[in-house]
Amino acid sequence: MTRAIVVLSGGMDSTTVAGILHAKGYEIYGITVDYLQRTSKKELDCAKKVGEFYGFKDHLFINLSFMKEILKDSTSLIDEKLEIPTESSEDEIPNTYVPFRNTIILSLAVAWAETLNAELIGIGVNALDYSGYPDCRPEYIEAFEKVARLGTKPNYAPQIFTPLQHMSKAEIVKKAVELGVPLDLTWSCYQNQEKACGTCESCQLRIKGFKEAGVTDPIPYEST
Amino acid sequence: MTRAIVVLSGGMDSTTVAGILHAKGYEIYGITVDYLQRTSKKELDCAKKVGEFYGFKDHLFINLSFMKEILKDSTSLIDEKLEIPTESSEDEIPNTYVPFRNTIILSLAVAWAETLNAELIGIGVNALDYSGYPDCRPEYIEAFEKVARLGTKPNYAPQIFTPLQHMSKAEIVKKAVELGVPLDLTWSCYQNQEKACGTCESCQLRIKGFKEAGVTDPIPYEST
User: What is the strand order of the sheet B120-122 is part of?
Assistant: First the structure.
């Protein structure tokens, strides 16, 4: 069986990527990081359940608690003094942006992939409904793929697999439903609470996606 | 003062980069990682002393002990069952290669640099006396610099500063001496022992460099 790594946050997008890799018949290795983000316990629980659902061959949970020291007060996903925005802006990157997060996680994934000789690394980045994060854009992924090729042994060149890159959230929901992805096990909300808040930018994107897809979201919300 | 980050291993090359940044008048922030490499205690001690010597504004020591799990038995720098080579090969990458290490460390450095708004990140990679590691080549650094530009906020683009890129070890020794770099505080040996072994590839490169530069190496060796 050909090996694939999936960067799994426990959210809807990365879980759908796991579902796509499963449908393609890969032997899946999951990588999930904890950088003390507000919702880390919730996300890790979800990621663990998704890994079990798909029978991951191995699942690494990596503690990056030092990120708090590196990033200081620069992101609201870690720093609870900063407020999570409920409105998106077309011109500005929201304070939920975590500096260089995707590169850090992808770098760890490539080191593991080279060790395992995995063919590809799946990640749920998305260029449409993506909150304006720079490290979700196709040109960023392309540049990173080049680094992965040049920074590893000459005979190794992992693909950075981004099947959701050009899909809207509604299209992702439809794809997930088609593949039987366990959306009830996923968590998208930026707030650390029992039920999803329904008002943060991430919840709004998710709710809009389900609505446009004509699908009922299986998770409970605080405000709906 | 303009801020600069230096990736500091405690070796001769990265310490010389710190010396170059110091001479240029930067406010220096050091980043040193511990990935449970054989010589980690020795390297961290040296890095700490170098940071104190240059009066770093801040110095992060980052524990990446999970690297052992990611890399399993793929590098002799971590796995003590693998033997450290004493001969270099022109065709093969030695087992001291650590998969994707430079990208992981540089990614952490970029996240910190973006948070600090640092102008550049100094790293002691070297394309001549470099043991054949893929992630020391100029084309790799150039590709990574592009990722650093594309993966961060639009108005931020850190330079990856590699002043030793095209220097031989002898030229590095001369540069270090010229700048008064504390070479006595540095550690290059791959073996975990009190004195440098003098026979591993890294010691051989260092010894050859000092010899060609006509400079006496201030550190003691086991075998000389």
Answer: B58-63, B27-34, B3-7, B120-122, B159-161
- pLDDT tens, position by position, A46-82: 999 999 999 999 999 999 888 888 877 667 666 677 7
Terminal Cα distance for chain A, rounded: 44
Average pLDDT over chain A, rounded to an integer: 89
Q: Using CB atoms, pick whichever of B62, B99, B114 lies closest to residue A115.
A: B99
Q: ipTM of this predicted complex? A: 0.85
Q: What is the CATH number of domain A3-213?
A: 3.40.50.620
DSSP code for B196: B
Residue to mutate among A90, A117, A135, A147, with most B CBs inside 10 A, is A147
Chain-chain contact of B107 with A93 (C-beta, under 8 angstroms): no
Q: What is the pTM of this model?
A: 0.88
CA distance A199 to chain B (A): 25
Give the integer Cα–Cα distance in Å for A7 and A123.
5
Q: Are B18 and B55 in contact (CB under 8 A)?
A: no
Q: pLDDT tens, B167-195?
A: 999 999 999 999 999 999 999 888 888 89
All structural domains of chain A with their residue ranges = 3-213
* Alpha carbons B14 and B200: distance in angstroms, whole number: 19
